[in-house]
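Please produce the structure of this protein holding xanthosine-5'-monophosphate.
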Amino acid sequence: MGPKEIEKILIVDFGSQFTQLVARKIRELGVYSEIVNSKKLSKLKDYKTIKGIILSGGPLTITTNKGIKLNEIIIKTKLPVLGICYGHQILAKRFGGKIKISKKREFGRAIISKKNNCLITKNFFNKNSSIVWMSHQDIVDKVPKGFKTIAYSDNSKHAIIANEKLKYYGVQFHPEVTHTVKGKLLIKNFIFKVCKIKKIWHTSKQKEFLIKNIRSNVGNNRVICALSGGVDSSVLSILLKKAIGNKLICIFVNTGFLRKNEENEIIKTFKKKLKLNLIYVNASKIFIKKLQNITEPEKKRKIIGHLFIKIFEKQMKKMKNIKFLAQGTLYPDLIESKSVTGSPTSKIKSHHNVGGLPKKMKLKLLEPLKFLFKDEVRRLGLKLSLPKEIIGRHPFPGPGLAIRIPGNINSHKIQIVKEADFIFINELKKHNLYNKIWQAYAALLPVKTVGVMGDGRTYEYICLLRAITSEDGMTADFYFFKKSFLQMISNKIINSITGINRVVFDITSKPPSTIELE
Ligand code: XMP
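Below is the modeled complex.
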């Protein structure tokens, strides 16, 4: 939990995949916020520093789960409330509004039109309309007494409602996603114009807050940190070093699924340059052995997660006083693997450091970055004076190349994909494209196709290239390369690597695809 003395906005989580985006938007506006699971609200004792409450969206529906009620604690606080999507409906219902299942679902882009003015929609409309992002089937059919309709869409006749006397507001759409063009402004109006909260939260406060929290959690114990050399675990190691000094021991595991030359570079940077207490474990043989003939993506992830823990526990036995395993888990890893607050969200894949962990673990997990997004972690890294080359690196998943080789994995395939990735990334750097792209990699598809080289027939693998742009890894779009670049890359990969006779470029966004293949 956050600093007690700081004014905050409370976000009541009903299980939306976007709840953390609300918190993030509020942080960007210079304000501190805390998320609580809607079921744990009864424990809410001290609301002196809370200046307003936001009710999140969620997968539940009021029309099918008829018994659902808004927790009366929220009303007792007499604080301003903003309900989003499901939060909008549950708020309307509490005051006597009617909710019904709409004949038409409303998903994605929608235009809402202005009917009345209110504080949260100041400058929100452009010529009386605004573009928003909807995701719902239930609608508010009748506005509660004391509320007025501020805006409507084709499908939601009460898309924004307000009771300005009580300072209660409800919006059917999601102001927290970037597709709602003026969503951040609406949140800004709510927290500053309605809640009148002070702007005192910035990255350096976040750094101090994280360091303070780590110190009080860890006490006199020692911590081992899983360092992969990626942005998240690098920022985490430096943060931990600042917080607990030599009580930190970093362990870098070579899974055999690392990028070309990665192990040498990590040892050089972290041990020699940044003077971290680093143990190098080469476990590549055991990882490859355990993954032999494993083709199911979730199984691969679970095996990798378990092996990581086994290795850490083995190392731990050699040391004294180790109580914690620190991991650079970020919010998108969590949201896709399980819910952060225990609210119901749907599982997409088990990130190796979350859903891939065994149920019984001897080490206690320490995950100080778990509420942050990648760009926030990068800013934190800058505040910690981490070298720019490390902060700017593309994300690399813990299971590494293993999830970029769908199907059976063997040393030959690993070698091929290492080389292809090395060529691709080097060319991106040479052409000044690396920093314009959020993440790029080469993968090896488990199909062989026929080709012709030097008048002869070939029957070899397909290399898939992926390059995406993104803000936070939650959504992504493919990067639009020039034809000449793709041509050059394709030639270079095929001419340099035996085993590939076809190169394809992935043109799917996330959603519907994910960034990695598995
Ligand atoms: P997806 O494939 O879920 O990836 O769209 C989103 C971001 O997370 C990274 N990723 C992982 N990172 N352990 C990690 O540390 C994992 O198991 C894992 N799976 C995906 C992925 O590279 C992308 O940046």
